[in-house]
Amino acid sequence: MEMLATMIAQLLDDAPLDQVEAAAKDPAIGAILGGMNPQHAIVSSLGALPSDSVGYPWNSRYIVASGDLLSDFRANLNAESQGRLQVIRLYEQTTDPGVRDLLSFMIARDTMHQNQWLAAISEIEAKQGTITPASFPLELEKREVAHQFMNFSQGEESAAGCWASGPSMDGTGTFEYVQQPKAYGQAPILKPAPDIMHSRPEQAPSIINVGTLSK
Questions:
Q1: Threshold 0.90, pTM exceeds
Q2: 8-46 tens-digit pLDDT
Q3: Which tens digits make up the pLDDT trace of 167-178?
Q4: Neighbours of 138 (CB within 10 A)
Q5: Structural domain of residue 150, as residue ranges?
Q6: Is 121 found in the same domain as 75?
Q7: Which CB contacts under 8 angstroms, 24+ apart, belong to 166-169?
Protein backbone atom coordinates (compact mmCIF):
# COMPACT_ATOMS: atom_id res chain seq x y z
CA MET A 1 0.00 0.00 0.00
CA GLU A 2 2.85 2.40 0.83
CA MET A 3 4.55 1.68 -2.48
CA LEU A 4 1.38 2.30 -4.48
CA ALA A 5 0.43 5.41 -2.49
CA THR A 6 3.91 6.88 -2.96
CA MET A 7 3.83 6.12 -6.68
CA ILE A 8 0.45 7.81 -7.10
CA ALA A 9 1.57 10.84 -5.08
CA GLN A 10 4.68 11.25 -7.23
CA LEU A 11 2.61 11.02 -10.40
CA LEU A 12 0.10 13.62 -9.23
CA ASP A 13 2.54 16.12 -7.72
CA ASP A 14 2.78 19.14 -10.04
CA ALA A 15 1.09 17.19 -12.85
CA PRO A 16 0.51 19.65 -15.75
CA LEU A 17 -3.16 20.37 -16.38
CA ASP A 18 -2.87 19.42 -20.04
CA GLN A 19 -1.66 15.95 -19.07
CA VAL A 20 -4.57 15.51 -16.65
CA GLU A 21 -7.01 16.61 -19.35
CA ALA A 22 -5.40 14.27 -21.87
CA ALA A 23 -5.65 11.36 -19.47
CA ALA A 24 -9.30 12.19 -18.78
CA LYS A 25 -10.12 11.49 -22.42
CA ASP A 26 -9.97 7.81 -21.51
CA PRO A 27 -13.54 6.96 -20.36
CA ALA A 28 -12.40 4.98 -17.32
CA ILE A 29 -9.87 7.58 -16.15
CA GLY A 30 -12.29 10.40 -16.87
CA ALA A 31 -14.94 8.77 -14.71
CA ILE A 32 -12.45 8.45 -11.86
CA LEU A 33 -11.18 12.03 -12.13
CA GLY A 34 -14.70 13.41 -12.45
CA GLY A 35 -16.10 11.48 -9.50
CA MET A 36 -13.36 11.57 -6.89
CA ASN A 37 -14.38 10.35 -3.46
CA PRO A 38 -14.79 13.58 -1.41
CA GLN A 39 -13.62 11.71 1.71
CA HIS A 40 -10.20 11.51 0.10
CA ALA A 41 -9.92 15.27 0.41
CA ILE A 42 -11.95 15.83 3.58
CA VAL A 43 -10.76 12.93 5.74
CA SER A 44 -7.23 12.21 4.56
CA SER A 45 -6.26 15.48 2.84
CA LEU A 46 -5.41 13.51 -0.32
CA GLY A 47 -3.14 11.18 1.63
CA ALA A 48 -3.31 7.39 1.39
CA LEU A 49 -6.84 6.41 2.41
CA PRO A 50 -7.25 2.77 3.53
CA SER A 51 -10.60 2.17 1.87
CA ASP A 52 -12.02 0.46 -1.17
CA SER A 53 -12.99 2.15 -4.42
CA VAL A 54 -16.32 3.39 -3.03
CA GLY A 55 -14.91 4.72 0.23
CA TYR A 56 -15.70 1.77 2.51
CA PRO A 57 -12.93 1.78 5.15
CA TRP A 58 -10.66 -1.15 5.82
CA ASN A 59 -11.56 -3.12 8.93
CA SER A 60 -10.76 -6.43 10.56
CA ARG A 61 -13.48 -8.23 8.60
CA TYR A 62 -10.95 -8.43 5.78
CA ILE A 63 -8.87 -10.78 7.95
CA VAL A 64 -9.52 -14.49 7.48
CA ALA A 65 -8.84 -16.45 10.67
CA SER A 66 -11.03 -19.54 10.78
CA GLY A 67 -8.88 -21.60 13.14
CA ASP A 68 -8.19 -24.14 10.39
CA LEU A 69 -4.80 -23.65 8.74
CA LEU A 70 -5.71 -25.28 5.44
CA SER A 71 -8.82 -23.13 5.06
CA ASP A 72 -6.89 -19.97 5.93
CA PHE A 73 -3.97 -20.77 3.62
CA ARG A 74 -6.36 -21.35 0.73
CA ALA A 75 -7.97 -17.98 1.47
CA ASN A 76 -4.50 -16.42 1.39
CA LEU A 77 -3.75 -18.10 -1.95
CA ASN A 78 -6.99 -16.69 -3.37
CA ALA A 79 -6.13 -13.20 -2.09
CA GLU A 80 -2.67 -13.34 -3.68
CA SER A 81 -4.20 -14.58 -6.95
CA GLN A 82 -6.69 -11.72 -7.03
CA GLY A 83 -3.99 -9.21 -6.13
CA ARG A 84 -1.68 -10.37 -8.93
CA LEU A 85 -4.55 -10.25 -11.42
CA GLN A 86 -5.40 -6.66 -10.52
CA VAL A 87 -1.80 -5.45 -10.60
CA ILE A 88 -1.38 -7.00 -14.06
CA ARG A 89 -4.48 -5.11 -15.20
CA LEU A 90 -2.91 -1.90 -13.89
CA TYR A 91 0.29 -2.76 -15.75
CA GLU A 92 -1.64 -3.11 -19.01
CA GLN A 93 -3.27 0.32 -18.52
CA THR A 94 -0.02 2.32 -18.48
CA THR A 95 2.99 2.81 -20.70
CA ASP A 96 4.99 4.79 -18.13
CA PRO A 97 8.31 2.90 -17.71
CA GLY A 98 8.71 3.85 -14.04
CA VAL A 99 5.21 2.75 -13.13
CA ARG A 100 5.60 -0.48 -15.06
CA ASP A 101 8.90 -1.14 -13.31
CA LEU A 102 7.25 -0.85 -9.89
CA LEU A 103 4.24 -2.95 -10.93
CA SER A 104 6.55 -5.56 -12.45
CA PHE A 105 8.26 -5.90 -9.07
CA MET A 106 4.89 -6.32 -7.32
CA ILE A 107 3.73 -8.89 -9.89
CA ALA A 108 6.88 -10.91 -9.32
CA ARG A 109 6.41 -10.81 -5.54
CA ASP A 110 2.83 -12.02 -5.96
CA THR A 111 4.23 -14.94 -7.94
CA MET A 112 6.47 -15.78 -4.98
CA HIS A 113 3.64 -15.39 -2.50
CA GLN A 114 1.40 -17.75 -4.45
CA ASN A 115 4.21 -20.29 -4.53
CA GLN A 116 4.67 -19.96 -0.78
CA TRP A 117 1.00 -20.64 -0.04
CA LEU A 118 0.89 -23.51 -2.55
CA ALA A 119 3.89 -25.11 -0.85
CA ALA A 120 2.33 -24.72 2.60
CA ILE A 121 -1.03 -26.06 1.36
CA SER A 122 0.67 -29.07 -0.20
CA GLU A 123 2.46 -29.82 3.08
CA ILE A 124 -0.76 -29.64 5.11
CA GLU A 125 -2.71 -31.73 2.58
CA ALA A 126 -0.03 -34.43 2.77
CA LYS A 127 -0.60 -34.65 6.52
CA GLN A 128 -4.36 -34.28 6.86
CA GLY A 129 -5.92 -34.66 3.40
CA THR A 130 -7.58 -32.16 1.09
CA ILE A 131 -11.00 -31.71 2.73
CA THR A 132 -11.40 -29.34 5.68
CA PRO A 133 -11.83 -29.68 8.51
CA ALA A 134 -10.01 -33.01 8.70
CA SER A 135 -11.13 -33.55 12.31
CA PHE A 136 -14.81 -34.19 11.42
CA PRO A 137 -15.55 -37.95 11.30
CA LEU A 138 -16.52 -39.06 7.77
CA GLU A 139 -19.08 -41.52 9.12
CA LEU A 140 -21.17 -38.57 10.32
CA GLU A 141 -21.59 -37.37 6.74
CA LYS A 142 -24.35 -38.65 4.47
CA ARG A 143 -21.70 -40.44 2.47
CA GLU A 144 -24.13 -41.48 -0.28
CA VAL A 145 -24.10 -37.89 -1.55
CA ALA A 146 -20.54 -36.93 -0.61
CA HIS A 147 -19.23 -37.50 -4.15
CA GLN A 148 -22.36 -37.01 -6.25
CA PHE A 149 -22.38 -34.42 -9.01
CA MET A 150 -26.03 -33.31 -9.02
CA ASN A 151 -27.12 -31.82 -12.33
CA PHE A 152 -30.28 -29.73 -12.01
CA SER A 153 -29.82 -28.08 -15.41
CA GLN A 154 -30.93 -29.00 -18.89
CA GLY A 155 -28.51 -31.06 -20.94
CA GLU A 156 -25.89 -33.54 -19.81
CA GLU A 157 -22.69 -31.94 -21.12
CA SER A 158 -21.35 -31.61 -17.58
CA ALA A 159 -21.33 -35.41 -17.23
CA ALA A 160 -18.09 -35.55 -19.22
CA GLY A 161 -16.12 -33.54 -16.65
CA CYS A 162 -13.57 -35.02 -14.27
CA TRP A 163 -15.78 -33.73 -11.44
CA ALA A 164 -18.61 -36.10 -12.46
CA SER A 165 -16.82 -39.43 -12.87
CA GLY A 166 -13.62 -41.13 -11.78
CA PRO A 167 -11.79 -40.98 -8.46
CA SER A 168 -12.56 -38.03 -6.20
CA MET A 169 -9.86 -35.48 -5.46
CA ASP A 170 -9.78 -36.41 -1.76
CA GLY A 171 -9.07 -40.06 -2.58
CA THR A 172 -11.94 -41.36 -0.44
CA GLY A 173 -14.50 -42.18 -3.13
CA THR A 174 -15.58 -42.08 -6.76
CA PHE A 175 -17.52 -39.27 -8.39
CA GLU A 176 -21.04 -40.18 -9.47
CA TYR A 177 -23.09 -38.24 -12.02
CA VAL A 178 -26.77 -37.83 -11.12
CA GLN A 179 -29.16 -36.22 -13.60
CA GLN A 180 -32.12 -34.47 -11.94
CA PRO A 181 -31.59 -36.02 -8.49
CA LYS A 182 -34.48 -36.85 -6.24
CA ALA A 183 -35.47 -34.59 -3.38
CA TYR A 184 -34.37 -35.54 0.13
CA GLY A 185 -36.84 -35.19 2.99
CA GLN A 186 -40.47 -34.21 2.90
CA ALA A 187 -41.91 -31.09 1.31
CA PRO A 188 -42.02 -28.36 3.98
CA ILE A 189 -45.33 -26.83 4.98
CA LEU A 190 -44.69 -23.21 5.88
CA LYS A 191 -47.17 -21.06 7.77
CA PRO A 192 -48.08 -17.55 6.59
CA ALA A 193 -46.36 -14.65 8.29
CA PRO A 194 -48.18 -13.26 11.38
CA ASP A 195 -50.67 -10.45 10.86
CA ILE A 196 -48.31 -7.94 12.47
CA MET A 197 -46.05 -8.34 9.41
CA HIS A 198 -48.91 -7.06 7.18
CA SER A 199 -48.38 -9.77 4.59
CA ARG A 200 -51.18 -10.91 2.33
CA PRO A 201 -52.09 -14.64 2.45
CA GLU A 202 -51.08 -15.15 -1.17
CA GLN A 203 -47.58 -13.92 -0.25
CA ALA A 204 -46.99 -16.80 2.14
CA PRO A 205 -43.62 -18.57 1.67
CA SER A 206 -43.64 -21.23 -1.00
CA ILE A 207 -41.37 -24.10 -1.93
CA ILE A 208 -38.51 -23.04 -4.20
CA ASN A 209 -37.75 -25.19 -7.23
CA VAL A 210 -33.97 -25.54 -7.03
CA GLY A 211 -33.85 -26.98 -10.53
CA THR A 212 -35.43 -23.83 -11.96
CA LEU A 213 -32.98 -21.60 -10.07
CA SER A 214 -29.95 -23.47 -11.39
CA LYS A 215 -31.11 -22.94 -14.97
A1: no
A2: 778 777 777 777 778 778 776 676 666 666 666 777 776
A3: 999 999 999 999
A4: 13
A5: 138-180
A6: yes
A7: 169/130
